[in-house]
Amino acid sequence: GREQLLQKHRSNHYNIVETEMTWDDAKSNCEVQSSNLAIIPDNKTNSEISQLLENFTEVWIGLSKTRSWYWLTTGTTKAYTLMNWQSGRPNDLDGWESCGAVVVKDGTWTDEQCDVAYPFFCIGGRNQ
């Protein structure tokens, strides 16, 4: 159940931050905790994260774009292989939507303006 998932993700140093922040502020907040915005490498992780975040609407993750979409990792960027975009996304509305969020109700991803404030999800921590 959900409690088992929470325990599993605690051991992976996942941290759900309910305070709404812009994507850049969320990224900085994770870094202060010696972690990063969450990376979703596979469908199983995506499904588990959606269950953990069931009380939220959208949550920032470590997905962003300069020319193409990439995952933010420790000091590097990593191209993404799992693509779980919501239908019609990414659409980069008006050229301003360069940050990724999970749409919790169905576990899909959406591109949003980076200065919108959402809760966020960090992975990693001082113990790693």
Automatic annotation (TrEMBL):
Residue span, C-type lectin domain: 9-123
What Gene3D superfamilies does the database record attribute to this sequence? Mannose-Binding Protein A, subunit A
Q: SMART domains this protein is in? A: CLECT (SM00034)
Classification via PANTHER family = C-TYPE LECTIN DOMAIN FAMILY 20 MEMBER A-RELATED, C-TYPE LECTIN DOMAIN FAMILY 4 MEMBER K-LIKE-RELATED
Name of the protein described by the UniProt record: C-type lectin domain-containing protein
Q: Which organism is it from?
A: Seriola dumerili (Greater amberjack)
